């Protein structure tokens, strides 16, 4: 259920509703919006009687949420969620999250971070824990890799996005990085999602390579149901019969997710195509489709990369991509302002 407060409800009114929800053994999720706060109620197995809430001061209405997801949906929070870490943000201005696929060495990571920072980007990606198809492939530098990422943040003022492949890795990623990435192979690892939901840092959730939009949103709901509302969705390509591309970038999920959810959604053209020649065209298309940002692999010498070299952009290609993506994002922003179209227009 969703309890919508009046626009003049006080903090005390909100707190009273939260207390009432908790006294009944349920969980309360207050979501402040531009005009009013709505409070999500979860933990109930069946329908709930709205009577204990309907008469409380400051309550405008109690709404039954019929969708399977409650907290990710626009019923609870109409305004878009903006993720902020210091100066860096995702969900308002177009965001570029770029860096190495895997942290392989200090020199490889630092030289890439320097270019990312030079281009005025605020977010840096890099894997210290790599989920590899083969157990014999490079699995990442683990904590040593996180220390290199943390040094890149200190040196270049970048915010770090990095993957946690299991629950012990979440502890480490929380300690060293700014955003916890959950990879496509773990999108339905429910205990990992719950653990990420208990973290104090934002979570970038990649879409499972065979998941529907509803499954994707329900995975985000797992994180939010634990009280972490800072979730960024990421489309990274799905499995189809096509074999001209590593995965098929499903750009149609971008407006569809934005219509149903207030969460920002970014697109990963690198893992979805697996081929650097296709990265820039698909990235342009995603920005035109309204993506809130891009997540891109870059490498100083991709032919020697230990992971995903064929998809990594060379530095000059990356510079071109940033310029092109910003130009398209500006057009989309102006068009939205001029015509006042919806979030998905
Ligand atoms: C990654 O971003 O490094 C990665 C492994 O991506 P995915 O989970 O989408 O394959
Ligand atoms: Mn990769």
Short description:
Helix content is 37%, strand content 19%.
Topology, number of strands: 14
By CATH, the superfamily of the largest domain comes out as Aldolase class I
**Principal-axes shape call:** globular
Name the ligand types.
phosphoenolpyruvate, manganese (II) ion
Distance between the termini: 29 Å
Q: How many distinct helices? A: 11
Structural class: alpha/beta
What is the CATH domain class of the largest domain?
Alpha Beta
Indicate the multimeric state: single chain
- Proportion of helical residues: 25-40%
Lateral strand order in the biggest sheet: 7-8-9-10-11-12-13-14
Q: How much strand? A: 15-25%
State Rg: 21 Å
Give the uncertain stretches in residue-range form: none
Secondary-structure element order, N to C: EHEEHEEEEHEHEHEHEHEHEHHEH
What does this structure look like?
- With 345 residues, the chain is an alpha/beta fold.
- The chain has two domains: 2-63, Alpha-Beta Plaits (2-Layer Sandwich); 83-338, TIM Barrel (Alpha-Beta Barrel), CATH 3.20.20.70.
- It has eleven helices and 14 strands.
- The strands form three sheets. An eight-stranded parallel β-barrel has the order 7-8-9-10-11-12-13-14, surrounded by seven helices. Strands 2-3-1-4 form a four-stranded antiparallel β-sheet, with helices on one face.
- Helix 8 (253-260) links the parallel strand 12 and strand 13.
- Helix 10 (276-288) runs parallel beside helix 11.
- It is globular.
- The mean pLDDT is 96.
- It binds phosphoenolpyruvate and manganese (II) ion.
- Manganese (II) ion (MN) is lined by residues 101, 271, 307-308.
């Amino acid at each position: 259920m969703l309890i919508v407060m009046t626009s003049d409800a006080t903090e005390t009114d909100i707190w009273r509703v939260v207390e009432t929800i908790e006294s009944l053994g349920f969980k309360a999720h207050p979501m402040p919006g531009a005009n009013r706060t709505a409070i999500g109620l979860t933990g109930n197995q069946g329908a709930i009687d709205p009577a204990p809430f309907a008469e409380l001061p400051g309550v405008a209405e109690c709404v039954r949420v019929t969708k399977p997801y409650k907290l990710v949906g626009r019923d609870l929070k109409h305004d878009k969620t903006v993720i902020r870490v210091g100066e860096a943000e995702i969900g308002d201005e177009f965001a570029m999250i770029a860096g190495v696929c895997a942290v392989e060495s200090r020199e490889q990571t630092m030289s890439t971070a320097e270019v990312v920072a030079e281009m005025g980007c605020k977010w840096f990606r890099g894997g210290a824990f790599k989920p590899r198809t083969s157990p014999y492939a490079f699995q990442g530098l683990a904590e040593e890799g996180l220390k290199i990422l943390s040094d890149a943040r200190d040196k270049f003022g970048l915010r770090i996005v990095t993957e946690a492949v299991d629950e012990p890795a979440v502890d480490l990623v929380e300690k060293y990085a700014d955003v916890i990435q959950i990879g496509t192979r773990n999108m339905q690892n429910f205990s990992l999602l719950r653990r990420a939901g208990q973290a104090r840092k934002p979570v970038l959730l990649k879409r499972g390579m065979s998941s529907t939009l509803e499954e994707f949103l329900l995975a985000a709901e797992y994180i939010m149901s634990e009280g972490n509302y800072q979730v960024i969705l990421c489309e990274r390509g799905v499995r189809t019969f096509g074999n001209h591309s590593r995965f098929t970038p499903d750009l149609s999920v971008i407006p569809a997710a934005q219509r149903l959810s207030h969460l920002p959604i970014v697109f990963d053209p690198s893992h979805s195509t697996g081929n650097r020649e296709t990265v820039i065209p698909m990235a342009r298309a995603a920005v035109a489709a309204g993506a809130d940002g891009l997540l891109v692999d870059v490498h100083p010498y991709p032919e020697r990369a230990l992971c995903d070299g064929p998809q990594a952009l060379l530095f000059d290609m990356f510079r071109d991509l940033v310029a092109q993506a910003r130009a398209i994002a500006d057009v989309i922003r102006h068009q939205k302002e001029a015509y006042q179209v919806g979030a998905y227009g």
